[in-house]
Amino acid sequence: MIASLLFAAFAVMMLAGVPIGAAMGLAGAACIALANVDAQWFGLLAVPQNFYAGLGKYPLLAIPMFVLVGSIFDRSGVAARLVNFAIAIVGRGPGMLPIVAIAVAMFMGGISGSGPATAAAVGGVMIAAMSRAGYPGAFSASVVGAAAATDILIPPSIAFIVYSVLVPGASVPALFAAGMIPGVLVGLALMVPSFWLARRHGMGLQEADVPKPPFWASLREASWGLVAPVLILGGMRAGWFTPTEAAVVAVFYGLFVGMVIHRTIKVRDLFVILRESGELSAVILIVVALAGIFAYSLSTLGVIDPLTRAIVNSGLGEFGVLMLLVLMLVAVGMVLDGVSIFLIFVPLLWPIMQHYQWNPVWFGVLLTLLVALGQFTPPMAVNLMVSCRIAAVGMDETVRWVRWLVASMFLVIMAVLLWPQIALWLPTQLGY
User: Fold this and answer.
1) Is the pLDDT reported for residue 185 higher than 90?
2) Percent of the chain with pLDDT over 70
3) How far, rounded to the nearest angstrom, does the alpha carbon of residue 285 sit from its chain's CA centroid?
4) Cα 124 from Cα 264, distance rounded (Å)
5) pLDDT band at residue 228 using 50, 70 and 90 as cut-offs
6) 39 pLDDT exceeds 60?
7) Residue 37: is its pLDDT beyond 70?
8) What is the pLDDT, as a whole number, of residue 302?
9) Residue-wise DSSP of 150-163
């Protein structure tokens, strides 16, 4: 009875517009109080204890740092220089700017690890450029929103850090390595329909006669941005620093590039950067902390074991259960943000993973792919919200374009599901 009340209270508060973190915390606290009604107020001591326990994990220190990195590189001018360099490589003409937007977003994923931050950085440069070239705003917003979804797959990734905290046996370096190949495949898969749609509908004709930037000058301008992911990922691989320390190194490197090299960041800008990063980090970490209360309620009320037995004994078989989970997470991804999906569903899915002996690193990549799909699938679509705001279009206008990108990415998801070595080959080769 109390277990049913947990989910009912959470659903009602969500429908009433209560922020998701508060809904998880309040529902969990209410059920803890009901389950310990004989212990008076002593049972409620579990609420602050689990609130703190949700935050007291060393890998979570990397989250505010990588959020800060995304904000710094957003203002450093790196994205604009990477765009010029990408155009110098692929050239101009119909269908070329969408490829550039996706490629730059993938590269920015190796710096920030935040989809909305990349959507803002790349969208601020690319949507205006695509508009001048004759691309509809809804199409440009769709491409940028989808491209930014690669950022939680290509390391460093905030999603992988949260997952590593929740799942024993899934280290951050292993997850970072496992996300690399699927992240690149997603980017390539998004390029195909973007290029085809642009050509089919005659988009980008205005840029066909515009000369492309000189290669060597563009390379020189973009070189400081190109070094960033090499420094972050190479330093971790070489053992110079941990993922958390890598985030701090990336912050100082970004400040050096923005303030000394490109001089696009002034001292007065630091307050705005720190404030925005602090607000976003606080939102993420408060949700993580409140989810600790919700997860404690799940475990103490005995919800997880009966649910696991019901799914395992459903007669669907291993592949059927896996497809059921995929369809469920696709639907959930349309209405919940990625961090919340991890915090709510990973504790529920962990016993199922153990029963079928699924590799936790592979399953983490699969789950992150599904979360990435939700980042540009309406109605929630946090990345698409950002790009639509920049393009000044409604999200409903993007549906005709987004559906092709969703279908293309879903093919990659199915490939990783059917052939786990797509995700596991690189971490195995690197010895993780």
Assistant:
1) yes
2) 92
3) 15
4) 15
5) confident
6) no
7) no
8) 67
9) GGGTSSS-HHHHHH
The average pLDDT across 88-94 equals 77
Please identify which residue in the block is written with the tokens 């935040």. Answer: 114
353 contact partners, CB below 8 Å, separation of at least 6: 167, 360, 363
Rounding to the nearest 10 degrees, give the CA dihedral for residues 217, 189, 116, 387: 80
Residue 93 pLDDT > 80? no
Q: How far apart are CA 398 and CA 276, in angstroms?
A: 28
Of 10, 24, 19, nearest to 290 (Cα)? 24
Contact 280, 69 (CB under 8 A): no
Q: What is the mean predicted confidence (pLDDT) over 108-136?
A: 78
Contact 269, 63 (CB under 8 A): no
> Based on the number of CB atoms within 10 Å of its own CB, is 76 exposed (0-12), middle (13-18) or buried (19 or more)?
buried
- Measured CA to CA, the distance from residue 180 to residue 233 in angstroms comes to 11
- How many other CB atoms are found less than 10 A from the CB of residue 29? 22
* DSSP character string of 77-144: THHHHHHHHHHHHH--STTHHHHHHHHHHHHHHTT---HHHHHHHHHHHHHHHHHHTT--HHHHHHHH
Note whether 6 and 27 are within 8 A (CB): yes
Q: Which residue in 391, 289, 236 sits closest to 49, CA to CA?
A: 289
